[in-house]
Amino acid sequence: MSPSRYARLSRPELAVLVPELLLIGQMIDRSGMAWCIKEFGHAEMLQIAIEEWAGASPVYTRRMQRALNFEGDDVPTIFKGLQLDIGAPPQYMDFRYTIHDRWHGEFHLDHCGALVDVEPMGDDYVFGMCHTIEDPTFDATAVATNPHAQVRPIHRPPRTPADRHPHCAWTVTIDESYPAVKGIPALDLVRETQAATWELDPVDRSGEGQADYSGPVLSDFDFGAFSHSALVRMADEVCLQMQLLNLSFAIAVRERAADAELAVSVNTRQLTGVAGLGAERIQRALGLPGGIDGVLRAFELHPLLNPAGYVVAETESGRVIVHRSPAHDDRAWISLCSPESVQPLQAIATAVDPHIEVRVSGTDTDWTAELVESDTVATEVPEVKVAKFSRGSTFEFEPRRSLPLTVV
């Protein structure tokens, strides 16, 4: 295991960064699905989204449960998992939970950033997201905790009236008489990746702050209450969530692409968009400087290069040096970057400082990206503009009180 790149951050910095990473994970779809519509059509995009989340979320949900010591088979366990899931970043997807008992609960969304993004596109797109995609993917998320869990709507969009609030509401019920939900074929493929079983350092339980989430479900997850070590583990786990979601996305895209070239093109456009958007949010959240130093820090903290060891890379003297790694073997994001494919790397640099040019030399798996100051101002590429169509690109987190939820 390699030391986490996030360990260099302070506990307050990590408390700011982890929810940012969760939101960046949500933006993967804001970046990728537009290109799926362009290449495969709306109906196939919906199926890609279903397979993408159903192939990854059962794997990474279990990982987070183990990491923070809240494994279980009940409704509170499902709710805790959602609070640390890139599918439900805090506040942007503002889940409010009610617990009736271990086997019965409800949640509603006071704000759904994804809905706000698609409502201007019309009811067909809203129905596709809130019905076609949500029905199988909510069950796929719950199956990681209990295959007999059912997540069912009380009401959901399209909103009637148009300003209906909350945006949607759902019941969660676990009953052994319900037929067990089974994983999709892609789930078996994702489980075979090195990302699925990648080992991270255990949480050091001696530090100041909470080391796990074994207590009651909290109304709002208080990142600041957790220890430095726990937050480092969360950051790395969230990056693995993104890596796994992308691997599942790539499987679904390859099944539909006419050839490997098209599949790589769609996957690279997805990465380029989220790379630029993510770098911009990381810089803004942590107040990183511009210039070569700021760009290097953004690379170190970007999900593209994390977790360390899974992606083998180092930064030094204005350069990012990448070596063949397990992520290359998985065909993860880093495999889309090379001397012939610089755009995702340039998107990160441009987001931090448009005067920094990225020049890459080497092979497909072992290369060096040199950061060079330029008099030319780089323009934002279309892939990043598409990703930033989402209001998640400018969403701001707010301070919240975190209260334990009791049985109603």
Write the layout of secondary structure elements.
Layout: H1 11-40, H2 42-67, H3 75-83, E1 93-101, E2 104-112, H4 113-118, H5 123-143, E3 149-155, E4 168-174, H6 185-191, H7 228-256, H8 260-286, H9 291-301, E5 313-316, E6 319-322, H10 326-330, H11 343-352, E7 356-362, E8 367-373, H12 382-387
- Overall mean pLDDT stands at 96
**Overall tally of domains:** 2
Q: Give the helix proportion (percent range).
A: 40-55%
Strand order of the largest sheet: 1-2-4-3
Give me the Rg, rounded: 20 Å
| Main beta-sheet strand count, sense and barrel state | 4 strands, antiparallel
Label the structural class. Answer: alpha+beta
Along the chain, the helix and strand elements come as: HHHEEHHEEHHHHEEHHEEH
Number of helices: 12
Proportion in β-strands? 5-15%
- Counting DSSP E segments of at least 2 residues, the number of strands comes to 8
Low-confidence stretches: none
Cα shape = globular
How far from one another are the termini? 44 Å
Characterize the structure shown:
With 408 residues, the chain is an alpha+beta fold. Helices cover 46% and strands 13% of the residues. The chain folds into 2 domains: 5-240, no CATH class; 275-392, no CATH class. The protein is globular and about 60 Å long. The protein starts with 10 loop residues before the first helix and ends in a 21-residue tail after the last helix.
